[in-house]
């Protein structure tokens, strides 16, 4: 994996070379139309950005030349300097020097730039007089050079999206060919299919790698945002950023940007106390906000932690009852994690009381929906008076997902690994019938367990989800899934393997069935339905709490 410095340098060089080409075009335009204000403004913008970017990354020669050219064009804009033939030539020479400096960033044999040219730029910048331009005619900078192309190019994201879709189709056909080669037991076909597997896998990871960006491209925008929000709220906030070099799919980063901004705003506005309140509580007057990223197998974890008020679970439970999100008689048995999950319910976000004690409910349903849309998870942990942590678990890619394959009633299904907590074998005696659902104790936690066969095949009125007599055999295969701080055990007939799958949307009218998140094809050619864990979990939790 590239270092953060190397990636920033490559991005800088690619942008700088684009600026170089654009400057040459615009100066040519300006030579023909010296009064074109729009072109002048664009030249000024490009030079200003190049000056700032090169200074920030440590290329001071590029910054210095950019600054001199920027100053010269500011004089032209203000009519203090005429865009004469001599000035045009020096401007072109200056831009050529920028190109030379950019192309030779990594060239250890490249010496200092030509001092005659730099003198000409200084004459234009420092003397503010057209008469001094005559001095620039003493010796011209040699602009004859070989044409070169950058090793770096910009690619539109939609082109990479299209490539990823094609790779997905190729993966499906690859798995089918491998399955056929095994059935025919042909050595030649096995060799070809094995090579196809390696090439397809390498192509998949190459395309995915091309879509990756450092998460710092988003994180590094937050110091200014936090400063502005804190100033508006009359609060003092110390922001700590870690993990900026962690890489993630650009589309995923784009989708979660608004969600992360919302969480940060809520943490400052409603989570952190004022300096006076914090001092009364024995805390430091400056609140702490930590935003971190780390890799977790095939996922990326983003955590936002504050040391503010925390969340009052009793008040959340009271509000949930008032908003009819849980029946009063069921509320006493709700776990702390399930109490926190109410914060993400659409009905809960309208409760005025929430903003008065924590503000955590406002808009969190929108945040959760955005995370759900990319197949991610969001979790919240909080301690009253101590602070709150939001954890976003995100896939590194949208198109290709790791999944667990299983079978129910001789039909293949898949569940994304991101929502899979564990797979356990439970004895039928470990399942307890409570009302119309089954419950099991797993590591000290009571988990609702359901038989997927009943959900997928039985008519609504005939479902008996709490009836153990319908289970086949004494030992049950249970997949424990997690969504919105809640766990659910799914009893399946057979467990298979983990596998990368390409999820395709269902065709109409099947796309209206909530419990299915899409479909994929297995190597055998069989269709495999992908379960939508959020929809399945919501359905059974509502039965348990209703």
Automatic annotation (TrEMBL):
Record-annotated CheW-like domain positions: 400-542
GO MF assignments: ATP binding; phosphorelay sensor kinase activity
Top-level taxon of the source organism: Bacteria
Reactions accelerated catalytically: ATP + protein L-histidine = ADP + protein N-phospho-L-histidine
Gene3D superfamilies: Histidine kinase CheA-like, homodimeric domain, Histidine kinase-like ATPase, C-terminal domain, HPT domain, SH3 Domains
Enzyme nomenclature, EC number: 2.7.13.3
Pfam families named among the record's database cross-references: CheW, H-kinase_dim, HATPase_c, Hpt
Enzyme class: transferase
Keyword annotations from UniProtKB, A to Z: ATP-binding, Chemotaxis, Kinase, Nucleotide-binding, Phosphoprotein, Transferase, Two-component regulatory system
Modified residues (Phosphohistidine): 48
GO biological process, one term: chemotaxis
Transmembrane segment boundaries: none
Domain called Histidine kinase: residue spans: 195-398
GO cellular component, one term: cytoplasm
Biological role stated in the UniProt entry: Involved in the transmission of sensory signals from the chemoreceptors to the flagellar motors. CheA is autophosphorylated; it can transfer its phosphate group to either CheB or CheY.
Database matches in PANTHER family: CHEMOTAXIS PROTEIN CHEA, SENSOR HISTIDINE KINASE CHEA
Protein name in the entry: Chemotaxis protein CheA
Gene source species: Pontibacter akesuensis
């Amino acid at each position: 994996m590239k270092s953060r410095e190397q990636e920033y340098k490559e991005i800088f060089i690619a942008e700088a070379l684009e600026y170089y080409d654009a400057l040459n075009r615009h100066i040519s335009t300006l030579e023909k139309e010296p009064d074109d204000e729009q072109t002048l403004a664009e030249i000024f913008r490009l030079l200003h950005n190049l000056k700032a970017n090169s200074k920030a990354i440590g290329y001071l020669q590029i910054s210095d030349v950019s600054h001199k050219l920027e100053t010269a064009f500011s004089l032209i804009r203000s009519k203090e300097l005429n865009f004469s033939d001599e000035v045009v030539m020096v401007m072109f020479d200056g831009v050529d020097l920028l190109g030379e400096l950019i192309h030779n960033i990594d060239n250890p044999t490249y010496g200092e730039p030509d001092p005659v040219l730099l003198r000409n730029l200084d004459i234009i910048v420092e003397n503010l007089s057209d008469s001094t331009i005559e001095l620039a005619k003493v010796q011209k900078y040699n602009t004859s050079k070989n044409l070169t192309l950058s090793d770096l190019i910009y690619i539109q994201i939609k082109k990479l999206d299209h490539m990823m879709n094609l790779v997905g189709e190729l993966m499906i056909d690859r798995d089918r060919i491998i399955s056929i080669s095994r059935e025919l037991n042909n050595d030649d076909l096995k060799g070809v299919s094995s090579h196809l597997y390696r090439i397809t896998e390498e192509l998949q990871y190459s395309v995915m790698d091309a879509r990756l960006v450092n998460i710092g491209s988003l994180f590094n925008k937050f110091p200014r945002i936090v400063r502005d929000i804190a100033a508006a709220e009359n609060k003092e906030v110390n922001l700590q950023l870690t993990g900026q070099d962690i890489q993630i799919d650009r589309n995923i980063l784009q989708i979660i940007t608004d969600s992360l901004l919302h969480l940060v705003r809520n943490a400052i506005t409603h989570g952190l106390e004022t300096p006076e309140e914090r001092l009364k509580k024995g805390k430091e007057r400056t609140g702490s906000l930590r935003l971190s990223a780390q890799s977790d197998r095939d996922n990326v974890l983003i955590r936002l932690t504050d040391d503010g008020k925390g969340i009052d679970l009793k008040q959340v439970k009271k509000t949930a009852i008032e908003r009819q999100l849980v029946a009063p008689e069921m509320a006493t048995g709700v776990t702390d994690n399930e109490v926190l999950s109410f914060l993400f319910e659409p009905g809960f976000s309208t409760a005025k009381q929430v903003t008065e004690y924590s503000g955590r409910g406002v808009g969190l349903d929108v945040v959760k929906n955005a995370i759900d849309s990319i197949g991610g998870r969001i979790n919240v942990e909080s301690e009253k008076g101590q602070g709150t942590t939001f954890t976003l678990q995100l896939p590194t890619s949208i198109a290709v997902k790791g999944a667990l394959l299983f079978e129910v009633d001789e039909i293949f299904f898949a569940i994304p690994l991101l929502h899979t907590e564990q797979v356990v074998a439970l004895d039928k005696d470990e399942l307890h019938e409570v009302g119309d659902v089954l419950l099991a104790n797993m590591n000290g936690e009571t988990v609702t367990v359901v038989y997927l066969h009943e959900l997928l095949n039985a008519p609504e009125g005939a479902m008996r989800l709490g009836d153990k007599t319908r289970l086949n055999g004494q030992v049950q295969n249970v997949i424990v899934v997690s969504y919105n701080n809640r766990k659910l055990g799914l009893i399946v007939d057979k467990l298979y393997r983990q596998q990368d799958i390409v999820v395709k949307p269902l065709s109409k009218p099947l796309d209206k069935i909530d419990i299915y998140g899409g479909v994929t094809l297995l190597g055998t050619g069989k269709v495999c339905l992908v379960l939508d864990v959020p929809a399945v979990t919501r359905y059974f939790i509502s039965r348990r709490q209703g």
